[in-house]
Write a structure and sequence with these properties.
There is one protein chain. With 466 residues, the protein is of the alpha/beta class. It has 14 helices and 20 strands. The strands form four sheets. Strands 1, 2, 3, 4, 5, 6 and 15 form a seven-stranded mixed sheet that branches. Strands 7-14-8-9-10 form a five-stranded parallel sheet, covered by helices on one side. The chain is globular and about 65 Å long. It starts with 7 loop residues before the first strand and ends with a helix. 46% of the residues are buried.
């Protein structure tokens, strides 16, 4: 353990998923630990990100299901969304989730001191001051878990766009929405606003939406969006400017496509264009910590360029997922207490999006697997062949399994469709346990379920030509 230069062995900056996990784990390893948080505990995921977005997605799903009820003989009127009540519900669920976590109590039970006295700022490599008081905290090791902040469009009028975190601050539900950026947040908001009845345009600079996902998943979602009436524009040359439109309160967005300027008017423009580290207030220069390209670079042990300062979660520019942040936090805590000995790996990191249809993946994409192992085996089962999907009238989608040539090792799983996140998560658990394709195929899956598609895909993979 690094020698303490003050009252604490480990100081954690930030009380989101990474910060809480890091503090508790460091305390379990015998360190004296403090956490400094500038705002509310829970981090972006609970307060402004994953939880609020999931509540909006739940609302969108309810709207969709009510509209589909007539096909089952249930006579209902077209649903009407009351924006103020939806916002109130999102905020209430956020509070309920925070209360259920009992973060302050969990930290106290672990023997961790929690300081909610404003932003922390380094005065030297081992000490920080808290903006809301004259307190100075010092420690032998520091774990930075401050997360990220929404990226802004660096164009004239970029501040006229709102970020995903600001959607709930809209006074009324917009009737037209332009979303710039088609990562996980962008596509989820596209689903939400379209289900709420808005006209939606989704703009992406790269050749396809969801650039990091399996190509087939992205193609399935793009096609579904177009069928739902969402305008999907990929390969744009960038946004040139945003300005007030002639119509009162609207925005006019100008972007390049095929070498020409295109104009789009919308009630609201939402920027989903990156997630740089929320490090501006930390005074990292006083600690000698390097910041590059909006992130704090780390090595495989999550060390910054200053050996006793570790970075876990979104701030290091790695996977922007709460589950990844928690995993990294435990690695960073172990290394902060015992010295750099544990390396981080996200080889099995399931991700998902609550779109329509749902999307998910884990492991290597099909393209990555074929590049690494040209003779790998790939098998897909479309949802239209799954009895549960036919029953629910949710036949859009598929599950793809990727394995090595011998089919003894699963390399990846990718899905689009109802319940895709839960399906892929089950495959991820099997991959973590070392299950081979034959084992997955031999499970007697409950019928009729979405999870049964795993057995169908595994069986198809076994029958694939050698």
């Amino acid at each position: 353990m690094a020698p303490s230069t003050g009252g604490y062995d480990v100081l954690v900056l930030g009380a989101g998923p990474a910060g809480i996990a890091a503090a508790v784990h460091a305390a379990e390893l015998g360190a004296r630990v403090a956490v400094a948080e500038r705002g509310r505990v829970g981090g972006m995921c609970v307060n402004t990100g994953c939880v609020p977005t999931r509540v909006l997605a739940k609302t969108a799903r309810l709207m969709r299901d009510v509209r589909a009820a007539g096909a089952y003989g249930v006579a209902v009127d077209d649903p009407v969304l009351v924006w103020e009540r939806t916002v109130a519900r999102v905020r209430q669920v956020t509070e309920d989730v925070l209360a259920s976590k009992r973060t302050a109590e969990a930290l106290a039970s672990a023997g961790v001191d929690l300081y909610l006295e404003g932003a922390a700022r380094f005065v030297d490599p081992h000490r920080v001051t808290l903006a809301g008081s004259d307190r100075t905290l010092s420690a032998g090791a520091v774990i930075v878990c401050v997360g990220g902040r929404p990226g802004r469009l660096p164009v004239p009028g970029g501040t006229l766009a709102v970020t995903a975190e600001q959607v709930l601050d809209l006074e009324r539900l917009p009737s037209t929405v332009a979303i710039v950026g088609s990562g996980h947040t962008g596509v989820q908001l596209a689903t939400v606003f379209r289900a709420f009845g808005a006209e939606v345009a989704l703009l992406e600079a790269r050749p396809r939406i969801l650039p990091g996902a399996d190509a087939a998943v992205a193609a399935c979602l793009s096609e579904a969006f177009e069928q739902q009436g969402i305008l999907v524009q990929t390969g744009i040359g960038g946004v040139e400017r945003i300005e007030p439109a002639p119509a009162d309160g609207r925005r006019r967005l100008t972007y390049r496509l095929d070498g020409r300027a295109h104009v789009l008017d919308a009630d609201t423009v939402v920027a989903c264009v990156g997630w740089p580290a929320a490090a501006a207030e930390l005074g990292l220069d006083a600690a000698g910590v390097v910041v590059a390209d909006g992130r704090i670079p780390v090595d495989a042990y999550l060390q910054s360029n200053v050996a006793h300062i570790y970075v876990a979660g979104d701030a290091n520019g790695g996977p922007m997922l709460a589950q990844a942040a928690r995993f990294e936090a435990e690695v960073a805590a172990t290394n902060a207490v015992r010295g750099p000995s544990r390396r981080v790996s996200h080889a099995l990191l399931p991700w998902g999006g609550f779109t329509d249809p749902d999307i998910a993946g884990v492991g290597l994409t099909t393209a990555e697997a074929r590049q690494r192992e040209p003779d790998c085996r790939v098998a897909s089962v479309p949802y239209r062949e799954l009895e549960r999907a036919v029953i629910d009238n949710r036949t859009t989608g598929f599950l793809t399994l990727v394995a090595n040539r011998q089919r003894s090792l699963l390399l990846g799983a990718h899905a689009a469709g109802e319940g895709a996140v839960e399906v892929v998560q089950a495959v991820a658990a099997a991959m973590a346990a070392g299950a081979d394709v034959a084992t997955l195929a031999s499970v007697e899956y409950a019928y009729p379920t979405y999870g049964a598609i795993i057995g169908e895909a595994a069986g198809r993979l076994l029958r694939a030509p050698p």
